[in-house]
Amino acid sequence: MAPSAAPAVLLDSLGKRFGATEAVVDLSLAVPAGEVFGFLGPNGAGKSTTIRLLLGLLRPTTGRAEVFGDAADDVERAHRHLAYVPADVALWPGLTGRECLDLLAGVGPGTDTAYRDELVERFGLDPGKRARAYSTGNRQKVALVAAFATRAPLLVLDEPTSGLDPLVEREFRRCIAEAAGRGQTVFLSSHQLAEVEAVCTRVGILRAGRLVEVAGLEELRRLRRSEVTVELARPAPGLERIAGLPGVADVRWTTPLQLTLALTGPPRAVLRALGEVDVVRLDVREPSLEEIFLDYYGRAAA
Amino acid sequence: MTTRTPPRAAATARPGAPASPGTAVRRLTVRQVRRGTLVVALLCGGLTAFVAQQYEQTFSGAVGLDSLAALADNPAIRTLFGPALALDDPGGFTVWRTGTVAAVLAGIWAALAGTRVTRGEEEAGRADLLLAGRVRPATLVRTALGVLLTAGAVIGAAVVAGMLAAGTAVTGAVLFGALVGGTAMAGGALGVLAGQLVTERRSASGLAVAVLLAGLLARMVGDGVASLAWLQWLSPFGLLGRVAPYALDRAAPLLVLVVLVAVPAVLAAVLAGGRDVGSGRWRGRDRARTPSRLLRSLPGFAVHRVRRPTLTWSLGVGAYYLLIGLLATAMLDFLRDNPVFAELAADAGFARLASVEGYAASLFSLLAVPVGAYAAARIAAVAGDEAASRLTLLYSRPVGRVRWAGWEAVAVAVGTVVVAAVGGLATWAGASWVDAGLGLGGALGGALSVVPVALLCLGAALLALGWFPQAVLAVGVLPAAGGYLLLVLADSFGWPSWVRGLSPFAHLAAVPADPVDVAGLVGMLAVALVLAAAGLAGYARRDLRG
Ligand SMILES: Nc1ncnc2c1ncn2[C@@H]1O[C@H](COP(=O)(O)OP(=O)(O)OP(=O)(O)O)[C@@H](O)[C@H]1O
Ligand SMILES: [Mg+2]
After folding, report:
1. In terms of C-beta density within 10 A (0-12 exposed, 13-18 middle, 19 or more buried), how is residue B258 classed?
2. Region Disordered: which residues (chain B) (predicted)?
3. Which atom of ligand 1 is nearest to the CA of B283?
4. Whose CA is nearest to atom 26 of ligand 1?
């Protein structure tokens, strides 16, 4: 077995249909080993379904999934490489947190118990309580500790931080960074865009079961439009034609001396046009990740 | 903050995987069923040992051999109580008197445990955590099967131990234990199988229990109708008569029991692979065609919730009581010819079997058990919804707990009347078919006369809902099932009358043979109301779970 040769996650024209609902359609994606991959999309887009297909919990209608080269439905082999945190964590009400951790270590791919004890400390988890007495966030911590403590080469996390407080959330980001530092791969589905922006190197965006974009965060920003604000020293009627340039949209004159426009793609033509007039100030604002995603998600509704 | 090390450095530092993930899963499953196994084993072992021992003290040698032959030959007796064999032996008597009860108890418990550890775990999402480890769905199912079969063996061993402790023959004890334990195994396998087929735990439990009880019905028909005797081979209950512990001591039919366990077990193991985790093989529609108009008010919601269960329970009760009606004439002829058994039956809690009204009345008193169980099960469903947080949204509205639980209780109370009435109608239809001369009014009156006992169950279940929400079902069935058992034991062994008086059945007149016991009826209704009021008071003030 040479995990280095195969991608950590390989989805090959994966599809899943529930009755009349097409939850995932013809999804192909490869996540190389060592990458922190963000998996985004509006509610019901099919993120959890894709993850459950990857874990072999659901049977694909079409296509296949692989984990480090092992078929997802061969769970005894594939699950040696991964650890999973589900979106809402249900634990055995009668077991204590420690017993749950022991149980999950017993079925998991090998657990570093010293690191686990350290994680229990860092997440501020009280492992002596019975699971029925845990709050939502504490149940989530149990699953997170169990997952990180395995040091599995692939961490599959489905909205793992939806119930965590900011302190624990910060600890979570540190753990992701440490995991990445050790070369572990992370497949993270999340609605918290700040978190994705902070930890992920590449993101995929799912809409209505289809992958609409896979790109590095930088690349994504570059592909998206930036907002340009121009201030002029004196009115320049010749600049009206800027609206017709390639990649330019939403030109607005806020005053006769100030205009804003949205720019997509290389700025060469706009810069040339501006070069002929007397520009006092030029401000180029990168879109936030949130704006980018809202743009993508919004088109789902349309 | 972090320094990026080359990816390969990590793989070498990884801890080794534990050798067998199956062990962890097995330990968990054992933990989930061990308490129930212990309780059922003690109940089955204790009950059988107790009856065998009491027999020694009361009537060993009281029954003549020729009467025994007549009893064993009569189809009606066989249908209702199972084949009566070796009644002159404490072991044989115990098998006849408690065999079916113990087997039904063990089988139903195992079926419910089977759906709980498979479908229940999937429904709660806990199975996902295990299955994300190196565990196949098929392994989970095989583990559940292994643990439940072992639990069945423990229950069987408890019966063997009890019968041996009571001093009965070894062969008979082992065969009897094998039958009760085997029934538990078959029930467990059926439960696991139902968990593979159906997506909701509640429906899966219902399916498994329904199949078991259909087996009991098949046993009754097979015992009563000679040409259908082969039906006895289809259920563990029928095999009890084929094996005939303490009488014929045949071991060969146990092979059929092995098949009855193996078929559902193997089917479950096969169906476990290759399906989506979280949904059964049979998927319902994800969309309803028209929204239900009932869901616009609390009473409507209560009706909506009891509709389906009421129909299912009515069908089951109707099938049993149709058969009981059909047997009326055969039974009456037999008792006229063998007065010894009329007395024996009277001792065993079936007084006045000699007229059709008396026969119907005796069997209607049994009707209280399923109708009471129906009521308790509906309130247990309320407690289950609460534990699964399904009531949180409802109670976040301006909905008082007493108001909602009250409507639910009213709907269930009406449901008990419906289920009992269906039992009465079915008896009347069966008896009319064989011209037994049972009037419609008498049949309905007799069936409805047990409703107060069912309402006691409803009251007890509400009490538990308010004060011991973990045990609603057990507390709820106590007045009917426990009370019935108490009456039978008190009558069989001549216990003091105040002990007998604790049973609600002691206050139930033999309608339609006797007029309604108005005082008893009013008393039971009053107790039911007090229990319900105390329960609702507790429910209103306690913390909601889930
Ligand atoms: N077991 C199921 N049966 C039927 N339909 C399902 C099932 N599971 C998911 N779906 C449907 O598949 C689609 C994708 O669901 P999924 O849970 O993957 O969404 P998601 O992207 O994880 O959404 P969220 O952000 O809300 O978690 C939805 O339309 C959902 O209704
Ligand atoms: Mg999801």
Report:
1. middle
2. 1-22
3. 3
4. A43
